[in-house]
């Protein structure tokens, strides 16, 4: 009898233990992202636990074990910690190497603008749990070496330690000499000067090449204050003034100009085509007289103006017609021989014959008259 009783008691104890164990909540059943694991592996019914976020995240959870199941009491999801603006660096820029927000784990990479170099050892910052690490990098202008000249050259500017963009200007000490090389050099982005330091040499000028012209008795080099003699080809005209050799070359650029501007206006005439703003030597423009006006044709090219030596040449003249009104004919006591009462417009050098009105006779000039450049003597009948 005693063995079965003990066995039955053990069974009851085992069932009670399993029931009690089934009321606990397990750590492995907690499924929240970015949280630190709970301290214990299991929690008894009614027990609470506080979950903290992993480093770099903010938020909190409070859970309670209810008959083997976790019940959420407080829930503030774990989100990435945010950092403020990482800071701008003068003469430089930065960019995020990943993502688009300043949050935990984000890294910004700094670079310097053209002509500047980074003097900081570290060129990036990363958003940590306590904020940005490192300091804002520093970009300084690239430096160029000191400038050294000889006794014949003066240099103005920051000659001891030029920075990117600095310009050094050179001039000769003597007014009778000129710079041999670049008179201005600048500090480049690579830390080198754009050109070498120049020297000074005697002022000379080379014989120029002249379009539509040539130099008279040219020499290889002209000394200071020497005068350049040149001539232009037919149809071209030399520029006004005398070129003289000076410090910066010829005081006047020798040119042979054969171009003409817009053709001039001609009284009582217009061009036969659209005009250009500029014409070459030898080009011509045709004109036509207004209606009833007569062109004076002394030669075949009387109706043209031609561009020569930079000037328009030619002589165009349009002679005016004569106008006779009906009122004027009545006043002179005349009428048209062919009859009719109408105003007449007679071109230059045309003839017309009048007759006296009934009961009147002509006195003075004859009844047939010729138009002469807008002037015509009308007969008088009384």
Written overview of the protein:
The chain is mainly β. The protein has six domains: 31-80, Complement Module, domain 1 (Ribbon), CATH 2.10.70.10; 92-141, Complement Module, domain 1 (Ribbon); 143-202, Complement Module, domain 1; 203-256, Ribbon (Complement Module, domain 1), CATH 2.10.70; 269-318, Complement Module, domain 1 (Ribbon); 322-381, Complement Module, domain 1 (Ribbon), CATH 2.10.70. It is built from two helices and 39 strands. The strands form 16 sheets. It has a four-stranded antiparallel β-sheet, with no helix packed on it. A hairpin with a 2-residue loop joins strand 24 and strand 25.
| Main beta-sheet annotation | 4 strands, antiparallel
Q: List unreliable stretches of 5+ residues.
A: 15-20
> What count of domains describes the coordinates?
6
CATH class of the largest domain: Mainly Beta
β-sheet strand percentage: 35-45%
CATH homology group of the largest domain: Complement Module, domain 1
- Going by helix content, strand content and strand pairing, the class is mainly beta
Question: Which features does this protein show?
Answer:
4-stranded antiparallel β-sheet; 382 residues; single chain; mainly beta; Complement Module, domain 1
């Amino acid at each position: 009898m005693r063995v079965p009783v003990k066995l039955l008691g053990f069974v009851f104890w085992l069932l009670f233990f399993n029931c009690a164990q089934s009321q606990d909540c397990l750590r492995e059943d907690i499924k929240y992202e970015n949280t630190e694991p709970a301290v214990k592996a299991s929690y008894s019914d009614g027990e609470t636990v506080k979950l903290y976020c992993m480093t770099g995240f903010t938020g909190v959870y409070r859970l309670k074990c209810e008959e083997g199941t976790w019940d959420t009491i407080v829930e503030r999801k774990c989100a990435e910690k945010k950092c403020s603006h990482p800071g701008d660096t003068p003469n430089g820029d930065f960019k995020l190497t990943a993502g688009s927000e300043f949050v935990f784990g984000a890294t910004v990479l700094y670079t310097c603008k053209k002509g500047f170099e980074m003097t900081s050892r570290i060129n990036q910052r990363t958003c940590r749990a306590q904020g940005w690490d490192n300091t804002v990098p520093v970009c300084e202008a690239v430096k160029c070496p000191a400038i050294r000249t000889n006794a014949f050259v003066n240099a103005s500017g920051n000659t001891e330690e030029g920075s990117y963009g600095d310009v050094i200007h050179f001039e000769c000490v003597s007014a009778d000499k000129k710079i041999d090389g670049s008179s201005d050099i600048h500090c480049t982005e690579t830390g080198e000067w754009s050109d070498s330091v120049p020297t000074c040499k005697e002022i000379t000028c080379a014989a120029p090449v002249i379009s539509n012209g040539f130099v008279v008795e040219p020499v290889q080099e002209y000394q200071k204050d020497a005068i350049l003699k040149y001539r232009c080809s037919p149809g071209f005209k030399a520029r006004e003034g005398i070129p003289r050799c000076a410090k910066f070359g010829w005081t006047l650029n020798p040119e042979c100009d054969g171009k003409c501007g817009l053709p001039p206006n001609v009284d009582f005439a217009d061009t036969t085509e659209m005009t250009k703003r500029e014409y070459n030597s030898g080009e011509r423009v045709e004109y036509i007289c207004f209606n009833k006006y007569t062109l004076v044709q002394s030669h075949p090219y009387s109706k043209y103006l031609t561009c020569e030596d930079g000037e328009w040449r030619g002589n165009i003249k349009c002679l005016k017609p004569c106008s006779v009104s009906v009122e004027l004919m009545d006043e002179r006591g005349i009428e048209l021989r062919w009859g009719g009462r109408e105003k007449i417009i007679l071109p230059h050098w045309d003839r017309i014959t009048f007759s006296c009105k009934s009961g009147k006779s002509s006195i003075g000039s004859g009844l047939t008259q010729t138009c002469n450049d807008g002037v015509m003597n009308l007969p008088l009948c009384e």
